[in-house]
Amino acid sequence: MKIILLGAPGAGKGTQAELICKKLNIPQISTGNIIRAALKAGTPVGLKAKSFMDAGKLVPDEVVIEIIQERLAEADCKNGYILDGFPRTIPQAEALEKMGIAIDKVIDIVVDDAEITERLSGRRVCDKCGATFHIKNNPSTAGEKCDKCDGNLIIRKDDMPETVQDRLKTYHEQTEPLEGYYNNKGILHTIVGKGDISDITAHVFKALEV
Ligand code: ADP
Ligand code: ADP
Ligand code: ZN
Fold first, then answer.
1. How confident is the model at residue 106 (pLDDT cuts 50, 70, 90)?
2. What pLDDT does residue 182 have?
3. Catalytic, out of 36, 71, 119, 123
């Protein structure tokens, strides 16, 4: 199954992707995680992406499209995958089609801007494995450390309040139009993203019919 997770920054895409992956045994492909890893490693892609990411803007389409093309060619993608954070623009969605990829379902997780702002202010991520936590809503059972790999929990630079407002603006302008795009194809499933993480997972599984 090939699935797209759509939603604003902080809507819970990463959190739900982790749970869907486990259930369906397919990889989670997060362009954000790939770009952050490239940045950390100091690769040309990472260097190119840094200023956009720091400013809460999207990395140029041609850069992310190349990243996704390479990733989807890897062996673990042959039985399907969950795209978390890609596509984020209409040209990115069109690029997927041009690659001959037929998406089965698009899960759109909808959360209002006020809740997003609260969530991102409390988000903590593991600097080793990328796992996501929230200081109140979803804390690590290992306190200040990641309960999956013992890595350090950090605040993403782009989760600072000023940048979050820019990211929300970017989302509404450039990513939200994808709802109409996929609705027209008849594969959009809208899910209310507020409430217990496990309840939302149940709704996602229902939409996926798994
Ligand atoms: P979020 O928590 O906002 O969903 P991500 O980790 O998915 O965050 O993305 C972080 C940043 O990485 C984005 O603000 C953007 O700069 C860049 N990025 C990730 N995916 C894409 C994409 N598909 N197109 C352009 N930029 C992207
Ligand atoms: P995205 O990948 O869409 O940016 P995340 O999965 O990283 O979103 O979630 C953003 C933040 O909100 C994280 O700190 C996460 O722990 C928290 N979170 C995720 N789902 C929920 C939920 N249903 N209720 C409250 N907080 C949540
Ligand atoms: Zn970890």
1. very high
2. 98
3. 123
Q: Is residue 185 flagged as an active site residue?
A: no
126 C-alpha vs ligand 3 centroid, how far in Å? Answer: 5
Q: Using one digit for the tens of pLDDT, what is the confidence trace for 117-142?
A: 999 999 999 999 889 999 999 999 99
- Model confidence pLDDT, tens digit, residues 144-167: 999 999 999 999 999 999 999 999
pLDDT, position 28 = 97
CA distance to 42, 79, 200, per residue, from 45 (Å): 8, 27, 34
**Nearest CA residue ID for atom 9, ligand 2:** 12
Please tell me the pTM assigned to this model: 0.96
Q: Cis check for the bond before 27: say yes or no (omega within 30 of 0).
A: no
Integer CA distances (angstroms), 198 to 19, 20, 170, in order: 9, 11, 28
